[in-house]
Design brief:
- The protein has a domain at about 15-55.
- Helix 1 packs antiparallel against helix 2 (about 30-40) and helix 2 crosses helix 3 (about 45-55).
- The longest helix is centred in the first third of the chain and has 12 residues, at about 15-25.
- The protein contains three helices and no strands.
- The protein starts with 15 loop residues before the first helix and ends in an 11-residue tail after the last helix.
- The chain has helices at about 15-25, 30-40, 45-55.
Length: about 60
């Protein structure tokens, strides 16, 4: 079997509006799966946002400011 070289993943840019939408949904009590579904984002990305939100870090909600 040949060795497969892993290619770097391409990171998608998530607009601040979508990030703020996640923040709003978290504050309303939604979980990360439902938030991902409503916002149309990857569930694993939103899970990471939720973990940071739960720890009190909301810096992820505004990118590039």
């Amino acid at each position: 079997m040949e060795d497969k070289q892993s290619l770097p993943r391409e990171r998608a840019f998530i607009p601040n509006a979508k990030r703020r939408e996640c923040l709003k949904l978290f504050s309303e009590g939604y979980g990360y799966k439902k938030t991902a579904q409503l916002a149309g984002l990857n569930v694993y990305t939103v899970r990471d946002y939720k973990r940071r939100y739960a720890s009190g870090d909301c810096s992820w909600a505004e990118r590039g400011t």
